[in-house]
Amino acid sequence: MKTITTEEEIYHFAVERWGHKSVADLALKLSEESGEVAGVCIKRGERRSTLSDLDNEIGDVLIVLSQMASLRGQTLEELRASRFLQIKARFEKL
Q1: Which residues of 47-73 are buried (b: 16+ CB within 10 A; e: fewer)?
Q2: How much of the chain exceeds pLDDT 70, in percent?
């Protein structure tokens, strides 16, 4: 059984541990975590990391994105769905 963790739960956990962060602070953290995804990809080519390492880093990116979404009163699912509809509509016009 998979566990579902909400953006709000993640946000409150992060605030309790590290204090309130602004969207700008979280954008910097997102950049750091994205760099770690890239680092794992480089290391995969060198056989120094695993797909499990990649999964962990992708999870870290999602946690930071969850915090950003929560600050906006949104969920990742809502943001993804809304944006996908916009992108899809744009390409259907072509």
Answers
A1: eebeeebbeebeebbbbbbbbbbbeee
A2: 98
